[in-house]
Amino acid sequence: MVLSMVETTKPVKRRRPQTRQRLLDAALEVYAERGFGNSSVEHVCERAGFTRGAFYSNFTSLEELFLSMWEQRSTQMLADVEALLSSGEQPRVRSLGEVVEFVLAVVPVDDRWYRVSAEFTAHALRNPSLKRVIAGRETAILGTLMPLLDQLLAQIGLAVTDRAALGPALVAVHDGTLVQCLIEDDAEAAHIRRAELFRVLVEHYTAPKKDLV
Amino acid sequence: MVLSMVETTKPVKRRRPQTRQRLLDAALEVYAERGFGNSSVEHVCERAGFTRGAFYSNFTSLEELFLSMWEQRSTQMLADVEALLSSGEQPRVRSLGEVVEFVLAVVPVDDRWYRVSAEFTAHALRNPSLKRVIAGRETAILGTLMPLLDQLLAQIGLAVTDRAALGPALVAVHDGTLVQCLIEDDAEAAHIRRAELFRVLVEHYTAPKKDLV
DNA sequence: TGTACATCAGTGAACGCGCGTTCACTGATGTAC
DNA sequence: TGTACATCAGTGAACGCGCGTTCACTGATGTAC
């Protein structure tokens, strides 16, 4: 309510934020379509509907735009998941299969985004300072998803036994199988294999709650 | 013997193959260092010690060079593994841990290669015809490694129960954990987690041989 | 074995384009009074 | 509420560079006789 009032009583005047956002959005599209290396300032501006000068008024380089876009999308996606968890209805699950099913459903699927992510990962492999960014993203993802997993597992009387192993394992399997899902002809089969793999892992690093406490 | 005779009685005259190879080798280095998008014909030629004309005399585009290099390295790596297996001494293993250890040791580790692979994967996500190439590589890798795995497992009285699931799972875990190994500060820990993950998978998709036959 | 000619394979100059980057300029928006 | 001025935010022309691509040329290698 308060927010919407602020929005209406303060109609768009200073356009900077909007311009920035349009450039950021255009960047995702252009990068996903052409790849980072084949994208130019011109391409992004054309897509966003600006001239090149507008770009330089908002960013210093494509590199900076790329990084900004990536960080914005990353944090936004996690924020979405957390909002879904805290405010929404708590899901009810009855089996390990349902646990995995729900977690996978929560992870958003966006071809463009994962295309860009793959490129970003490749980029980070050549850029030490970006490695930290990637590592930070992994930590953030786990920080959001592991509590959800705990909560779901608790419903069926299970608890994670080895957090330090399961976390990175899930991320690795997520990344590895995602590529397969995007590349293979039979995406359906790939998704099924993916879910099964998650199940195997969760099952292995999990035990009935009584045995722990 | 015969080969070496041929080589010595036929000293280098026609230089084309050598030139091609030097360009292919330079391509790997340049791509690994700069990324595909930031590499130019000029860069590759400079690295190889040729002028740009030499490039156009051997390839039609960077894209073609990239693909040639990738396919050459891919097939070479598998050929190396197979040579090691067929001619070399058969390894003796006594536990599942040793099986995984040996398989992982056989897979070559080359930072530059995996940097390029990550980029190639990202590239393939935008290029349908390359998806086939990636899928073919997965098949080829499994075609080489699964027999090895079978052989090693047999030594400890185990056999794979679900080939269709284990194969892609191994590839996914390989790719996913490799990125972690290359990106994380503590590569040692990442490698250990990696091996454990392989062990968990192999263990899950394996059973004592008697139960099968 | 030597000579003449043909082909191979790479050189390096030249051309032009795409695009990064800058910057004077301008219309829109905000502020002071 | 209106006017004058300041600042914001993007325009679009201009400049120059890197580099893709071509091509006439040349020295090296192979062939015929």
Helix amount of chain A, in percent? over 70%
Terminal Cα span of chain A: 45 Å
What is the strand content of chain A?
under 5%
Examine the coordinates and then state which fold CATH places here, giving the name of the CATH topology of the largest domain in chain A. Tetracycline Repressor, domain 2
Main beta sheet of chain A: 2 strands, antiparallel
Radius of gyration of chain A: 20 Å
**How many E-type strands of chain A?**
2
Oligomeric state of shown chains = homodimer
Shape of chain A: elongated
Q: How does this structure look, described?
A:
- Two copies of one chain form a homodimer.
- Chain A has 213 residues and is mostly helical.
- Chain A folds into two domains: 59 residues, Homeodomain-like (Arc Repressor Mutant, subunit A), CATH 1.10.10; 152 residues, Tetracycline Repressor, domain 2 (Orthogonal Bundle).
- In chain A, 75% of the residues lie in helices and 3% in strands.
- Chain A contains ten helices and two strands.
- In chain A, strands 1-2 form a two-stranded antiparallel sheet.
- The longest helix of chain A is centred in the middle third of the chain and has 28 residues.
- The radius of gyration of chain A is 20 Å and the shape is elongated.
- The N terminus of chain A is likely disordered.
- Chains A and B meet through helix 2, helix 7, helix 8, helix 9 and helix 10 of A and helix 2, helix 7, helix 8, helix 9 and helix 10 of B.
- Chain A binds a DNA duplex (33 and 33 nucleotides) through helix 4.
